[in-house]
C-alpha cells in the first residue's frame, strides 16, 4: 500500500520519548558508549502519527535524531470522533497489540509504548492489550500496524463495489 508523504511543517506535532537505551560497542581501546532513543510524534487534531529512532553519544542528540526520523515517517489514521471503528490486532515480530473500541468516558486503557502511540494519534477512548513481546520497538510498530488496518466505512464500501449505507454506525461495545 503506497502512502503519500505527509509534510510535518503544517502539523502541530507533539513528541513523546518512549524509551532510551544505553548501548556499547566494544572496540580495541575499550567500550564506546552511546544512547539509542525511540520517539513517537503525532498530531491529535489531524490524526497523524509516526515513530523514529535516533542514536548519538548524548541523550538529547539521540532524541533530536529520533524526532527527525519520526517526522519523515508520518501516516494518517482513520478513526471515529471518540474511538476506533472495529477491533484490530497489529503484529510486528513477536509483539502483538489488540485494540478495541470503547464507549464515551472510558479513556485510554493502555500502558507504556501503546499509550504513547494512542495519545499521539489523539484517540480519547480505546481498550488495548499488549500480547507477546514487551520490547518497546516491537510494541510501537505493532500498534502502528494495528492503527493502519483501521478502515473507513466508505473506503470498505468502495473496495467491495457497494454504496455506503446512510444508517448511523452501531454504538461500540
Task: Provide an overview of this structure.
This protein has 173 residues and is of the alpha+beta class. The protein folds into two domains: 14-75, Double Stranded RNA Binding Domain; 78-160, Ribosomal Protein S5, domain 2 (2-Layer Sandwich), CATH 3.30.230.10. It has four helices and eight strands; from the N terminus they run βββαββββαβαα. It has a four-stranded antiparallel beta sheet. A four-stranded mixed beta sheet has the order 5-6-8-7. Helix 2 (112-121) runs parallel beside helix 3. It is elongated and about 70 Å long.
Brief write-up:
The protein is of the alpha+beta class and 173 residues long. Helices cover 25% and strands 35% of the residues.
The CATH architecture term of the largest domain is 2-Layer Sandwich
Q: What is the alpha-carbon Rg in Å? A: 18 Å
Order of secondary-structure elements:
EEEHEEEEHEHH
Q: What is the highest CATH level, the class of the largest domain?
A: Alpha Beta
Low-confidence stretches: none
Task: Examine the coordinates and then state which fold CATH places here, giving the name of the CATH topology of the largest domain.
Answer: Ribosomal Protein S5, domain 2
Principal-axes shape call: elongated
Arrangement of strands in the largest sheet: 1-2-3-4
Arithmetic mean of pLDDT: 89
The percentage of residues in β strands lies in 25-35%
Structural class: alpha+beta
Number of helices: 4
The helix fraction, in percent, is 25-40%
The total count of strands amounts to: 8
Amino acid at each position: 500500500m503506497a502512502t503519500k508523504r505527509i509534510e510535518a511543517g503544517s502539523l502541530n506535532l507533539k513528541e513523546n520519548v518512549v524509551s532510551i537505551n544505553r548501548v556499547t560497542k566494544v572496540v580495541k581501546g575499550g567500550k564506546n558508549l552511546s544512547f539509542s532513543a525511540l520517539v513517537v510524534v503525532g498530531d491529535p487534531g489531524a490524526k497523524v502519527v509516526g515513530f523514529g529512532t535516533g542514536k548519538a553519544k548524548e541523550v538529547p542528540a539521540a532524541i533530536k535524531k529520533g524526532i527527525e526520523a519520526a517526522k519523515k515517517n508520518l501516516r494518517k489514521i482513520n478513526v471515529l470522533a471518540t474511538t476506533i471503528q472495529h477491533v484490530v490486532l497489529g503484529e510486528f515480530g513477536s509483539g502483538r497489540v489488540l485494540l478495541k473500541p470503547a464507549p464515551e468516558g472510558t479513556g485510554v486503557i493502555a500502558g507504556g509504548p501503546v499509550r504513547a502511540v494512542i495519545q499521539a494519534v489523539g484517540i480519547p477512548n480505546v481498550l488495548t492489550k499488549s500480547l507477546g513481546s514487551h520490547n518497546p520497538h516491537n510494541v510501537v510498530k505493532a500498534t502502528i500496524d494495528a492503527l493502519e488496518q483501521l478502515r473507513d466505512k466508505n473506503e470498505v464500501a468502495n473496495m467491495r463495489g457497494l454504496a455506503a449505507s446512510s444508517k448511523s454506525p452501531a454504538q461500540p461495545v
